[in-house]
Amino acid sequence: GMRVTARALAESSQAISVLVFLLCMGVVLFASALFYAERMSCPEFEEMSTLDLERYAADCADLFNKGVSPRYGLCCNDSGSPNDFPNIMAAAWWAMVTMTSVGYGEVVPRTSQGKCIGFVVMLTGMLVIALPAAIVGQKFQDAYESHNMDSAKDAAAARMRVPGERWTLVPSSDITARLKALKIKDSATANSVAKFTMCLVEVWEQREQEMRARRYQLEVHDEINANLSRLLTGIQASVSTPNEA
Q: Residue 29: which pLDDT band, with cuts at 50, 70 and 90?
């Protein structure tokens, strides 16, 4: 099981690299967009009086308001950044858990424009993860089928083994090994080459099995002829004995 998993992951390294790259690009882009979109709703502290600042602080301290003052808008810190997203790095954490469909929910967008960005992030995350995941899943299936085929091939070779004779299902040519060792970047071409290699292996196995079946039929035919020859010899001997007597 671990060998199949390791083989599938090794063959899916290109798809996984693309997935990580797209996730990193999406996190940087959406984290920056969310930070500045939320920051647009922060009030201008310079234009607010002392009484307004006190009311604003009281509204933000009230958990019922959920981070938004009914009279002044989004709750922000002294630097004019949202309390939930004080910097782009904090927004990057939210973008990461949202794109990967984890969604802890400890921080969420409070404004309308932030929620719109969150909607786009969720859709983008599903698309970005779904495309490489299909490739990785196909690689797991191919590795599992190849493992089963190798096991079946070894079992068939063991059943076909005859004392004093050596039979193998491995082609004398190294063409299949060379095809399997090819490193092809294009996924479509790589899948075509893999299918072609599997077809070659199946043809070779069928050829070997037919040759073994033919050899077995010939051995059975020779054994039948030998038995008939002994039977006829015995009949002739039994017939000639009374005549001589």
A: very high
Name the helix (H) or strand (E) containing 73.
strand 73-74
> Are 143 and 11 within 8 A, CB to CB?
yes
Phi then psi dihedrals of residue 4, to 5 deg: -65, -45
226 HSE (CA, 13 A, CB side): 6
DSSP H stretches of helix in 104-186: 112-159, 175-180
Q: Please give the angle made by the CA atoms of 144, 150 and 155, to the nearest 5 degrees.
A: 125
Q: Phi first, then psi: what are they for 100, rounded to 5°?
A: -90, 10
Contacts of residue 31, Cβ cutoff 8 Å, sequence gap at least 6: 88, 89, 91, 92, 94, 95
**pLDDT of the residue at 28:** 94
Per-residue pLDDT of 84-96, as tens digits, reads 999 999 999 999 9
What residue spans of 160-186 are helical by DSSP H? Answer: 175-180
